Amino acid sequence: MIMEIKEKIIEKILLLVALSSIAVLALITFFIFQQGLPLIWKIGPKAFILGQQWIPSKGLFGIFPMIVSSFLVTIGALALGIPLGLACTIFLCEWSPPAVGTVLRPAIQLLAAIPSVIYGFWGLIVLVPLVRNYLGGPGLSILSGSVILGFMILPTIISISEDSLKALPPTYKAGALAMGATHWQTIWRVMIPAARSGIVASIILGMGRAIGETMAMIMILGNAVKMPSSFLDSARTLTTNIGIEMGYASGAHRQALFATGVILFIIIMLLNSLAIFLSRRRTG
Amino acid sequence: MVYRTRYITQGIAKVLIWIAALSTIGVMILILFQVLAEGLPVLHLRFFLDPPKSMGREGGILPTIIGTFALTVVAILFATPLGVGTAIFLREYTRESRISRLIRFGTDCLAGVPSIIFGLFGFVFFVIFLNMGWSILSGGLTVAAMILPTIISTAEEAIKGIPPSYREVSYSLGGTRWQTVTHTILPSALPGICTGILLSVGRSIGETAAVILTAGSSLLMPTSLFSPIRTMSVHFYILAREGISIEMAYGTGAALILLVLLVNTVANWLLNRYIRRRA
Amino acid sequence: MPRETKIVIKDFNFYYQSSQALRNISLTIHPREIFAIFGPAGSGKTTLLKSLNRLTDLIFGTRHTGTIFLDGADIHGPQLSLTHLRRRIGMVFDLPTPLPLSVFDNVAYGPKLSGTTQKRRLAEIVEKALRAAVLWEEVKDRLHTSALRLSGGQQQRLCIARILALEPEVLLLDNPCSGLDPISTASIEATLGELKKEYTIVLVPHTVQQASRVADRAGFFLNGEVVEEGPVYQVFARPKDKRTEDYVTGKFG
Lengths: 284, 279, 253
Known about the structure:
The complex is a heterotrimer. Chain A is mostly helical. Chain A has helices spanning 2-18, 20-43, 45-50, 64-93, 98-113, 116-135, 142-166, 170-178, 183-194, 196-212, 215-220, 238-245, 252-283; strands spanning 54-55, 60-61. Helix content of chain C is 36%, strand content 25%. In chain C, helix 3 (103-113) packs parallel to helix 6.
């Protein structure tokens, strides 16, 4: 009897424990919104999101340049990350000897574990001067940020795309080859399209990582608050906006940073829900 | 004629792919090697054992090492019971139901939240609301929330891999559900769970954005869980961005890389041994 | 004079989700006899066995009607706790399933979970169980090596020792000799002869011949029903039902 009561208690405790991830998510949502929404409400959502001037000392809080910059940096990162990611995936899955794969796969995982500040540092020391000397501008630019970010999201794209390719029924490949297609034609016209939803999910997840990256971007993008007009301009993303000023902001300024967080949070949640939906559909 | 074009296309594609793949991996290794090459000479024993002087221009990084270690321990201590408990609940105490779907959704969403948002949350919740101030505790709890999804999913994978016959045997010998968990499930799932913990340790060491907003950036030696600290990655970031000392930055960066590589290599080794043992 | 009963199954029906696996089973099993449940694959034999120690509770979406009595007590009723029931009725599965522990820890698993912690007592229990399963001589020098290193036949006898360590009253053996070589099979069958003296045994035999070698009474299962049951010599040599006769003579299987 005592045993059964003990078992019931343990079951209830485990249920509470299991709800912890939801509880944390709820707490995050609540507090971010609680801190950030009042300011958005006060200024007006349109003025906040579409406003182009961010001057805290004058009480002007428009984050449109940050949204545009986040968007540009992410697009740039994807422009680099998708082709390279696909190339590496194809290389790993189809076109390298298996021995290479056993060395490369753990290497890629290791590279994924390297802290983002290291990438940011390298970008600052090596890439930024390169851009400045050969392409002009301050070097601290959206271009530099895109390149580094592109490399940072590669492991995500590679590992999930690789899983998708590996999960394809072997008959797809065998059938195409049996019909006389070349290896490349099989990969490009049969396997990749078949693994499409997994690859797209990996790209969306990579996008989420790119939009959410902060430290490396602070180090490389410069600090310009105005609207970027070219890829060589310095800029601020939603994340760097928060990261740079949070250390000394107070009052309405701090609330505005939380408000930036609210917008960032919503964007990321939408993206990730899309990714989750796509990947569950694939395996479900 | 058409016959030959296909093979030309394939040849070009193959060359491009090889170039792309090898140069990608080459660049990433280059990044690592540069920091290590410049940074390793800086790493001597005093570097690890001395506190920093003049804002980090000289001396060592001892407080940051201790800070990193303490914060990581706090994070693991909180996240592991919660994460493993969640995994046990999902796999042993329920079936696919509304509750389990909700929990998984929450976990997946949590995994996608960017670290700066965790930083904001940790700041307003732990530092201000719960009045813990910038401290090891605030930072550790925030990082615990960040690594929770990883621990849950690796623990779940580990538990999923246990043959159902083990459970049947345990129950048929009169074991209760909790006894089956503690005597059969957990011991068998332990290697997988440890791998998840190690991966989370690696992530905790490298985490910067959330930590800087919750643990502060003090260079003093911490005296309690409520002391503010600067972790290695935060120190590295500040040195680099403020341009205080490139040499020290390289050294800290090299130490960071070596630490993360060490932890991840052990995790991978454990994973391989665990897979090989099961097979 | 009514014979003593150990297990009484009365009008038992069992459903997996929407399909019915057992229909109106009514059987009586007497103490210290070997009762063989035989029939073609998929006829519900394993389901019935698993219902006896309520392992079916682990499967989601199952229902049952009817009652099963152990020594007169309803196994689904409040008198008998689940863990207690499973210690009184032990089960050996058709594939040897040693736990990833040492030989000793495998056999000691049940007693440890039921509260025995004293090392000397556990050692006594383990030796007694291994002797009863006719495995002691072969493993006494390697009690603390991994059980996964034993041969198939040894592992299966280990599984028997495992349940004997709990001093049960009933043994459920689901095709225990499947996948074993003839020598191991013979040794297990001999063991059964010894075990019968103390335990009630319900056996799903590997072959009809095994049932006729080993069992006292037998029941023929077809499509979830008991077609006929009775003493072994009668069921096999002079079956009352044509279906039984056809199966026993090998016309279908």
